[in-house]
């Protein structure tokens, strides 16, 4: 240290990769066994920390419309977008419609094909790392190259058409895309934040006031709160009846209480999650793996993955001047922020 050596640990290495906008192992490699194991360990750690806090002092993620605040269900996201794009459900519907119409259309499309997906064996997702495909996607977004630089002169880019989108989706099925999201206003992104598709009304508001705040998610209703209260009341009544009767048969009943309480946790969705793409008022494209205030950019920056099929359908339905603009919402907030999509090659 006296010779000028900088001492840093694992946390600082994660921050260093975030400032470089580079993926960090194993945080940002969900398609390998190490990434899947790390996600399971991280979910268990966050869940244990969430349970240690009293219910009145922790966030109710059900009311915030956050299905998975401690993990990112990449497999379910890729499967749902594959179902939407194979039958032409999301491709034929423009995202310039109203929020309620878009949400109901996506819900009907996913639920109508749930039985078909159950019969076929699901294929695992993968992360798109082909440089040629990444350059093509970067050219279809704005800016047209990595780190805000312009594309090389002389490189012919095919136009973004529905035929090009269908051919690209056929070549890269069940694929995720590593993206860099730069906030266009104030705020700091957090881990497991949702990346969503803006509606036509959101883009109009952004064109009028670029420095203004984005839209807000309406609060959701917690349908599991009454069930948890009923279970607590029934367990208390059973405990009082057992203690009053002085029955020694309470030993086989005691291990049932933690099992029943582990099924439903106040503020968290149970394990069979509903549709992750159409749960909120804005259609979900992906999630953030790491995000904070970036010292290299001077604003909030997030790194994460989005569905390739969902991103292509979004770019196809967006106007050229707003192409590459998305929405980002933290798990503990109802406020959406406008972000700029960048694909680094």
UniProtKB/TrEMBL annotation:
Under the heading InterPro entries, the entry gives: Pop1, POP1_C, POPLD_dom
Q: Basic residues bias located where? A: 222-236
Protein name, entry field: POPLD domain-containing protein
Q: Where is this region: Disordered?
A: 208-261
Question: Which organism is this entry from?
Answer: Xenotaenia resolanae
Q: Which PANTHER family match?
A: RIBONUCLEASES P/MRP PROTEIN SUBUNIT POP1, RIBONUCLEASES P_MRP PROTEIN SUBUNIT POP1
Write down a Pfam family by its short name: POP1_C
Q: Where is the POP1 C-terminal domain?
A: 175-344
* Lineage of the organism: Eukaryota, Metazoa, Chordata, Craniata, Vertebrata
- Ranges where the POPLD domain occurs: 1-74
């Amino acid at each position: 240290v006296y010779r000028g050596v900088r001492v840093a640990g694992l946390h600082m290495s994660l921050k260093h990769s975030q400032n470089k906008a580079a993926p960090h192992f194993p945080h940002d490699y969900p398609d390998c066994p190490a990434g899947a194991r790390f996600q399971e360990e991280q979910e268990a750690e966050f869940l244990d920390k969430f349970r240690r806090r009293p219910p009145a002092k922790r966030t109710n993620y059900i009311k915030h419309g956050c299905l998975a605040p401690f993990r990112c269900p990449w497999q379910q996201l890729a499967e749902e977008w594959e179902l939407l794009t194979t039958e032409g459900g999301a491709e034929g519907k423009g995202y310039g419609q109203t929020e309620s119409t878009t949400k109901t259309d996506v819900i009907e499309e996913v639920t109508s094909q749930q039985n078909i997906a159950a019969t076929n064996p699901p294929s695992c997702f993968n992360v798109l790392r082909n440089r040629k495909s990444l350059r093509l996607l970067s050219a279809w977004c704005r800016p047209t190259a990595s780190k805000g630089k312009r594309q090389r002169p002389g490189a012919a880019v095919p136009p973004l058409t529905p035929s090009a989108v269908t051919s690209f989706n056929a070549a890269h099925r069940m694929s995720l895309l590593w993206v860099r999201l730069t906030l266009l206003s104030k705020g700091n992104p957090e881990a497991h934040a949702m990346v969503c598709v803006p509606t036509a009304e959101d883009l109009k508001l952004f064109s009028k006031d670029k420095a203004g705040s984005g839209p807000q998610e309406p609060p959701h209703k917690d349908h599991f709160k009454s069930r948890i209260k009923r279970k607590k009341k029934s367990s208390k009544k059973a405990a009082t009846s057992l203690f009053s009767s002085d029955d020694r048969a309470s030993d086989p009943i005691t291990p049932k209480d933690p099992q029943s309480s582990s099924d439903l946790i106040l503020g968290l969705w149970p394990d069979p999650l509903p549709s992750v793409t159409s749960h909120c008022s804005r259609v979900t494209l992906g999630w953030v793996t790491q995000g904070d205030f970036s010292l290299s950019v001077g604003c909030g920056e997030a790194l994460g993955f989005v569905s390739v099929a969902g991103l292509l359908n979004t770019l196809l339905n967006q106007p050229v001047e707003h192409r590459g603009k998305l929405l980002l919402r933290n798990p503990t907030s109802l406020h959406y922020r406008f972000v700029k999509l960048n694909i680094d090659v």
